[in-house]
Write a structure and sequence with these properties.
- By secondary structure, the protein is an alpha+beta fold.
- Strands 4, 5, 7, 8, 9, 10, 12 and 13 form an 8-stranded antiparallel beta sheet that branches.
- It is built from 6 helices and 14 strands.
- The radius of gyration is 41 Å and the shape is flat.
Amino acid sequence: MTRIKGTQVLRPRTARPTPAAERTRTESTLASRCAIAYALSALQFCCCFSWQMPTHTMSLPDKSPVYGTEDLLISLCNSVTRVLNVATHSQIHYSGMVQRISKTCLKPDIGCFVLFDGGFSGLVIINFSAQAAMELYANYLLNMGMSKDDLVSSYTSDEVSNVMGELMNQVVGDFTGKVRRELQTHITQNQPKMLVLNKQVMLSVDANLDKPEARRVTFYTSNNNIFYLELAIDRTEFIKLYDFEAQEVPDADALMAQSQEAPPVPAPPPAGGQDDTDALLKSLGM
């Protein structure tokens, strides 16, 4: 007890721990120290011998490029514009919007379709209006050197259908070449089929696809005539595993020039045995 200026201050007594509590606290402290010592020893062991425990991980790129239906559609649209621009000497362009459709079909006035198979299966349809077909037909033949008087005047003529089929064949051929060079796979195509349709007829083409995805894109000619491209393919994705350079487009003119500049291969000289045989026959009067 302590007195401070006449005031008595009582200090509380501190309770002494019982022997059982003291023993429990000692055991807990000892266990904590043992756990810390064990963890430090294990960490030191791993640091000392980490060179003996290499880790084997799969080295994959952070984000591999994936090419899907829309990428194939853009490649096909670029083939259409490139081939038609060169063949007709006119400007063909397509819409910046694409339609997702449930099925593809041939529609008036002229419908062309091509089936392809191989690395992936699909169907390409181009539906030309009469005005677009006649414009492309006339520009193509005039570019080939024909006179305007030799052109037919009706889109129902077989000559118009044949020209549309030839242009369709060139378009799909350019597309399959890009697939082989850029996606490193192979597809084959059949011969294009053309049908002249009236307003009351719509034909659906069955491509036997398991999980089809169909798209439609609108194209415009230089005179703003419209035709439609429809693509139906099995749902597929191309994932790039490693970097590679796409093959260059072969130049047909350069290959022809190279073949013409190559020196002719000389004919092999006649064998000596043949000369001996001729001399013997000549000596016998034969």
